């Protein structure tokens, strides 16, 4: 008989397919785990809808749960319940250590261009706030590209969702 | 879900699919490398949104998202004539369309967020968070180009096309041929 804790531990070992330094649990995309007998039901909230990593995440979760000897049901919840605010403190630390600036907190009214163009974002390498927006978009839907004028290093900034 | 809602979902999904395709045509062609990245990323998001709306509609209609996206006849699509236009290599017109579309789409999403159907409202709220970045990108370019005569002319020419959905130009059939050529290339394939 599988326990809920075993499932959470197994899911915590799955790396994000595009940013492997953090796990799916760090990313906060697992809303709930429900175990009844050998049936495991996971509610999974996608990050960005066009993200090609979503299928990979879903398959990886199903495979880990099967390896525990249980049947997996992965329920995809496409509503507004995932936010970058759900990335755990541990996840944010890992992101910064790998050169990704973690997202700013979600605010009422959503992000504004003038904010992105301000210097309210901190360089993950040297911690300077003297950074400029290079591109709202980046190599994946979840990231923007910024440039640190202080250490002259471009870096990727998580978008706030 | 009412029949009217099903039709509206198809309208939005068709808009986002076709616009996503057109935006992707800028990959490797944009006047700045940063815009190659931006339009490619926007295209990816729009097609992701199309898929989500098609999935919701497909469940109601007893079909699949892929069948809705690719197996209808071109004249069955409900997209706006604005998104059908192939605008490469006209950057001013592309930014004009981007601005017009995102402005109209914002209103449409705001209305859907108030839907009594929790799945429609929830998905609209999620999509709105992503679209916020498209709107900021459109706004940035609007501010840059707003005094350019070429941009103003493009805005005036394109604006009336936004609400034309009932008659399509041959451009949509040509696009459909390209879009579905692989899917149609192997008879009976389930991919």
Per-chain topology:
The complex is a heterodimer of chains A (161) and B (191).
Chain A lengths: L3 H8 L12 H4 L2 E7 L2 E6 L8 H15 L3 E6 L12 H9 L2 E2 L11 H4 L14 E5 L7 E6 L4 E6 L3
Parallel strand pairs in A: 2-3, 4-7
Antiparallel strand pairs in A: 1-2, 5-6, 6-7
Chain B lengths: L2 H22 L8 H29 L3 H6 L10 H4 L6 H22 L5 H28 L3 H10 L11 H10 L12
Helix pairs in contact in B: 1-2, 2-6, 5-6, 5-7
Bulk shape of chain A: elongated
Largest sheet of chain A, if any?
Answer: 4 strands, mixed
- Domain module tally of chain A: 2
One letter per element, helices H and strands E, the order of chain A comes to: HHEEHEHEHEEE
| Largest pleated sheet of chain B | none
Any idea of the CATH topology of chain B?
Ferritin
Measured by DSSP, the beta-strand proportion of chain A falls in 15-25%
Write the element-wise H/E pattern of chain B from the N-terminal end onward.
HHHHHHHH
Average of per-residue pLDDT values of chain B? 96
CATH homologous superfamily descriptor of chain B? Ferritin, core subunit, four-helix bundle
Form type of chain B: globular
Count the E strands of chain A: 7
Number of domains of chain B: 1
Distance between the termini of chain B: 30 Å
Q: How many β-strand runs of chain B? A: 0
Biggest interface reads: A-B, 26 and 30 residues
- At CATH level 2, the architecture of the largest domain in chain A is 2-Layer Sandwich
Q: Say what the CATH topology of the largest domain in chain A is.
A: GMP Synthetase, Chain A, domain 3
**Fraction of residues of chain B in helices?**
55-70%
> How does the helix and strand content of chain A classify structurally?
alpha/beta
Q: Could you give a short description of this structure?
A:
The complex is a heterodimer of chains A (about 160) and B (about 190). Chain A is α/β, with parallel strands linked by helices. Chain A is built from five helices and seven strands.
């Amino acid at each position: 008989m599988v326990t809920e804790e075993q499932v959470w531990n197994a899911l915590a070992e799955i790396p994000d397919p595009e940013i492997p330094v953090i796990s799916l649990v760090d990313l906060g995309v697992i809303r709930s785990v429900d175990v009844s007998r050998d049936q495991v039901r996971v509610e999974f909230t996608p990050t960005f809808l066009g993200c090609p990593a979503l299928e990979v995440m879903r398959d990886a979760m199903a495979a880990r749960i099967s390896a525990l000897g249980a049947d997996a049901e992965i329920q995809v919840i496409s509503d507004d319940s995932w936010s970058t605010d759900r990335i755990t403190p541990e996840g944010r630390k890992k992101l910064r250590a790998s050169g990704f600036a973690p997202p700013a907190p979600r605010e009422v009214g959503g992000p504004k261009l003038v904010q992105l163009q301000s210097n309210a974002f901190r360089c993950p390498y040297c911690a300077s706030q003297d950074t400029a927006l290079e591109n709202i978009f980046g190599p994946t839907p979840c990231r923007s590209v910024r440039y640190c004028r202080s250490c002259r290093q471009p870096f990727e900034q998580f978008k706030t969702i | 879900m009412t029949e009217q809602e099903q039709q509206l979902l198809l309208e939005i999904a068709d808009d986002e699919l076709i616009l996503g395709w057109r935006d992707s045509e800028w990959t490797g062609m944009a006047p700045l490398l940063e815009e190659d990245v931006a339009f490619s990323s926007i295209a990816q998001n729009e097609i992701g949104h199309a898929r989500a709306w098609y999935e919701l509609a497909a469940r109601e209609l007893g079909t699949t998202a892929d069948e809705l996206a690719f197996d209808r006849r071109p004249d069955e699509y409900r997209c706006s004539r604005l998104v059908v236009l192939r605008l490469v290599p006209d950057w001013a017109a592309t930014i004009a369309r981007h601005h017009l579309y995102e402005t109209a789409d914002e209103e449409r999403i705001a209305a859907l967020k108030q839907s009594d159907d929790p799945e429609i409202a929830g998905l609209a709220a999620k999509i709105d968070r992503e679209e916020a970045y498209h709107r900021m990108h459109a706004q940035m370019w609007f501010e840059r180009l707003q005094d350019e005569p070429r941009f103003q002319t493009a805005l005036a020419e394109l604006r009336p096309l936004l609400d034309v959905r009932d008659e399509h130009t041959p451009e949509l059939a040509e696009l459909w041929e390209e879009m579905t050529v692989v899917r149609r290339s192997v008879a009976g394939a389930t991919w």
